[in-house]
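Morning run. Coffee first, then this:
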Amino acid sequence: MNTSPHSSPSDRALAGLRALVAELGRGGGSVSPSVYDTATVLMFDVFPEARESIIRWLLEQQRPDAGWGLSSVPRARDLPTLASIVALHPYRELMPQVRRACEGGLAFLRDQAAHWGTSLPDDIPVGLELLMPRLLDRASSLGLGVDWDPYRALIALGERRRALIGKARPAAGSAASHSWEGWGGGPSPDLIDVSGGVGHSPAATAAWLHASRDKAGLDGARAAAREYLLRASGATEVGIPGIVPTVWPIHRFEQAWVLYALRVLDLLDHPRLGDVARPQLLDLGAALRPEGIGMSDAFTQDGDITSTVIATLGELVAPRAIGTLRRFERGGMFITYANELQPSLTTNAHAIHALASCGEKASTPARYLLERQQPDGRWVGDKWHSSWLYTTSQVILALSHEGHVPAVKRGLEALLRAQGGDGGWGAGSAPTAAETAYAVLALRAARRNRELESMARSAWRRGCDWLMSNHDIGAGQEDLRWIGKELYCPARVDRAWVLGALLVSQPPWES
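And here it is:
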């Protein structure tokens, strides 16, 4: 759809959504570049021809405090920081800035001890309990003097995880294979999935390539793995081989979450979106198996994506959906992956929504969400997203379906208190478009209740006005809010929430 500079905000948002929906899954998904995974690629020197460019890129990502990663999420910073130090260490004599970067990074890690206690929260990065001990070993072998003591609880969790992995004997496309570089040994070709990589993880794939370098009979698998890393580099749009995302491909994840955003915003039936959305819906419905659905057709099914797909498709899959969703139920709660050791607030919120779309109640996960509400009304500490604004908005939507008005009201009051003077929302140092869209979405849900609508109306309008002038989604530090091995941004997903919020903000509140 063509738009002119004089087109209305509604037309511009609609044109953006149409283009976005039409390109869902293209290139395996659009994902921000990862410091940790890129450092791992450099560590194993997979692309010697791009070595200097990768080093320069890593140096550019170092923060003013000498660490890597988003400063407002401190426990997500140790892994990319230590990986960068270990990867850059061999080049410290060649480039003075590399030596300074490593020395600063080590000093930063010494100050990080205050963020690690005797117990672990649920929102630590994916596989950190496996990856950090392996990196600490590498740092020790290099004589870097990194203190292990702050990570004792993490190391103990890693030992439990390794015991579970040893019993499961993970195969290609399994959740455990995603963190293969933290527990793997022999480079079996059976770990390579149809994407050409190991566990949809550039870091795991780079480690597998290194482990297989002297093994006979693996030329074909090694060529596929290197090609995988080249294609994964393309998903970041940086244009340098070896600068890779933290997870790829994410075709189904991207498709599921964008269509879910349109569902909760009541946009799937929009007369000017149906022609691009319906083919995607049909394709997604065909991809939903009795076992569920994962981030791609080559990766294991998970409870969170399965829940969002069922909530999105509703009556299209209702007769078979309940049995599929129940595969992820454990004691009335819902898991993301088998053998997980930490629950997810948002996975249970999405399961509630999925059950509601099929006419079912979910008292146990609802009770869990009610118990996890903070005294100030927020929900914090989800394992898949670092922003409490995302977590709180998703839980508000779920509890609205269950009729828990008092808890929803306290959550909305938390959102109202957190709104910036300019109308935006952000869990970090500045408001972001995606987080503001999440808050706008939650406030919009208040229209179902007269008291809540009156309370939320003014803030909703101010948030929409902020989005009108601040709706860009980039790969800046504050945009990296989803939790993988490090924080990342699935750009099309976040952009869908923003454009959808802009589109529904155009009619009057009462419509």
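The CA atoms of residues 387 and 436 lie 11 Å apart. Good start to the day.
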